[in-house]
């Protein structure tokens, strides 16, 4: 057997092993995500809040409780997350937000939102207006590459 065919067989075996490992890990992560989403759905409640500000910022700079920072994985602490500063009743709070919902939240407007703990899951209504869903613009070929 020539040397190139042996090398080719080894490379194919390694690729197949990597594919099997990725599918197993992917299934485990998918099950974990479904369990977390079920917990969020079970604990969510509708709250009326006045949105003061919204920013993409790091968790350690967001002013979230220390317990939240301790529970987040170290890889996510330095990553920028969608943070909404809102007045709920007499208290001003910093809340984390779902990235899909973040674009729909208006600034300086009263919003009825579905909240699970300190995580905004969805928006029910906006006082004095409609929920605005921004349109996705198509990117050009050069902008995609950047």
Automatic annotation (TrEMBL):
Keyword Transmembrane present in the record's keywords: the answer is: yes
Any transmembrane segments, and where? Answer: 6-25
Q: What keywords is this UniProt entry annotated with?
A: Membrane, Transmembrane, Transmembrane helix
Species assigned in the record? Lachnospira eligens (strain ATCC 27750 / DSM 3376 / VPI C15-48 / C15-B4)
Designated name of the protein: Type II secretion system protein G
């Amino acid at each position: 057997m020539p040397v190139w065919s042996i090398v080719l067989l080894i490379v194919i075996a390694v690729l197949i092993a990597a594919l099997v490992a990725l599918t197993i890990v992917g299934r485990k992560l998918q099950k974990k995500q479904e369990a977390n989403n079920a917990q969020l759905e079970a604990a969510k409640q509708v709250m009326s809040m006045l949105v003061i500000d919204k920013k993409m910022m790091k968790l350690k700079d967001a002013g979230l409780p220390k317990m939240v920072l301790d529970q987040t994985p170290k890889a996510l602490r330095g990553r920028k997350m969608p943070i909404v500063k809102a007045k709920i009743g007499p208290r001003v709070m910093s809340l984390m937000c779902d990235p899909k919902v973040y674009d729909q939240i208006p600034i300086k407007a009263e919003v009825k939102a579905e909240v699970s703990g300190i995580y905004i899951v969805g928006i029910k209504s906006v006082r004095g207006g409609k929920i605005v869903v921004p349109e996705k613009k198509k990117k050009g070929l050069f902008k995609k590459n950047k």
